[in-house]
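The protein record filed below.
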Amino acid sequence: MTLEKNLKERIKELTCLYEVSSIIVNNDFRELDKTLYSIALSLRKSLQYSKYATVEIISEPYHLISSTISKKTVLIENNINVFNDPKGFIKIHYPADKFTVNDFLTEEKKLLENVAINVGDLLERVSIRENEAILKRKMEHADRLSILGEITAGIAHELNTPLANILGFAELLKSKEPENTQTGQDLDKIINSAIFSREVVKKLMFFACEMPQNLGHTDIVPVINDAVNLLDPTFKKNEVKYKVNLPKGEVLLKADTIQLTQVIFNLVLNAIYFSPKNGLIKISLEETKKKIILKIADEGPGIPAENVQKIFQPFFTTKAVGDGSGLGLSVVHGIIRSHRGTIDYLPNNPTGAIFIITFPKQ
């Protein structure tokens, strides 16, 4: 290669690095595919035989190609590393019927390596930005739930006394009323409604973490097994299958056994309600050095994205009218929070919901 041609190649490579840096600086994080495509075009333009070259960038979920790839090619490639882990690659192809791998310049291999580093840096920034956005949404959601908890606790306390009075006086009147009178039947309706309302208040207090707890170090493996066994008739009635995967040894957690059972009941009953016939519900428990993780997954319709932020709020429900009060998941959230744990939702694949409960080990 002549000195003049060599100089032109170096200028093209430096121009490419400058263009790639400019593309990344002006990147719109919402249109990352366009950014990667622009980088592919810039890299292709800098090559000695750019007319025949194809640049391919793959990093899940993106797959960008600067031009049509020949059926048989010779190529050079470089990994795209994100936080020191390979998360894709960049390849430069030439048609195998016109070129050999020796037609790639040493400087082009070095250029490819530099561009891959720049793309990796870009993807790291995108990942950090996405994680910050997720964390911000979680914090905002937690703040809203905390405010709801305070309001709910106040409402529950205010309702407790009048409900107790209504129930007490109604039962007193009922005790003085002869059997099988219209007045007695009306009093039964008042008593039943007061009992139902008292249960709603109790659930609201669970959500607000206002219920007394009996915490003790408990092996939660039999707690989960017992809860699932009690629900076996419900599984059969709804023609839903289940699979339980629990450790063979003890898994100790400082917990209120009754409240933990209520969490399992609520989540599994929800899963059964939304499961199709012959659907499978998976219940698994995992223990690490610092955490205990309980997962309950179903194959139902899952939760629409617009509702995910609302599912732990009191009185929010997607069940048919009369099938739910909208307090089940809010009670679960309150109990888990009072155990210093967290509960998260993930969509199942290909369809369904996964609830992940994480407890810190005491």
Observations:
- The chain has a mean pLDDT of 81.
- The two ends are 70 Å apart (CA to CA).
- Residues 3-134 form a domain with the Beta-Lactamase fold (CATH 3.30.450.40).
